[in-house]
Write a structure and sequence with these properties.
Elements (H helix, E strand, L loop, with lengths): L11 E5 L3 E6 L6 H4 L5 E9 L2 E2 L4 E6 L5 E6 L4 E5 L12 E3 L6 E2 L4 E5 L1 H7 L5 E5 L7 E5 L4 E2 L5 E7 L1
Antiparallel strand pairs: 1-14, 2-3, 2-13, 3-11, 4-10, 5-6, 5-9, 6-7, 7-11, 8-10, 12-14
Length: 164
């Protein structure tokens, strides 16, 4: 029998769906910045209902002045951008109510942004919401995207991050 007392277990981070909806590959987001992974590895959700909640435990590192996006640093160092809808920066904060501030510690499932989806549908290009690991290009971790097609906020794991 062989014991591996000194072998470090691979750390895994589960990134949960921040909102209910249909899960789509990042490559299908109708915006090249996301679909060509210019901002990093990720996945997207076409929301069906609900607000945006923290997908991990971590710290808020960015809240867009226009309230349409939030950046989190997970406890494992992964930096996660949740970008609510496409071309929503033009809404100048309308349709969004931010519940957190930069520097806040958040727990998975905690409310981040209240969203008026009807307003977003009428006034933005799309409600599709990319969830991107903005520091995935550093190559320190491996990211696996779910095969699931439907996401439940706080229940469905959309991305798993593990040490290489």
């Amino acid at each position: 029998m062989k014991f591996n007392f000194f072998k470090k277990e691979k750390e895994e981070l589960h990134i949960y769906a921040p909102v209910n909806g249909q899960i789509v590959p990042i490559e299908e987001v109708p915006d090249p910045v996301f679909s060509q992974k210019m901002m990093g590895e990720g996945v997207a959700i076409i929301p069906s209902n609900g607000n945006i909640h923290a997908p991990v435990n971590g710290t808020v590192i960015q809240v867009a002045p226009t309230k349409h996006a939030v950046g989190l640093r997970a406890d494992d160092g992964s930096e996660i951008l949740i970008h609510v809808g496409l071309e929503t920066v033009a809404l100048k904060g309308e349709g969004f109510n931010v519940a957190i501030s930069e520097g806040d510690k958040v727990s998975a499932g905690q409310l981040l942004i209240e969203v008026d989806w009807e307003y977003i549908k009428k006034n933005a290009k799309s409600t599709i919401t990319p969830i991107v690991i903005t520091n995935s290009m550093e190559g320190k971790k491996q990211y696996t995207v779910t095969e699931e097609k439907e996401g439940l906020q706080g229940k469905t794991i959309v991305i798993t991050s593990s040490d290489k």
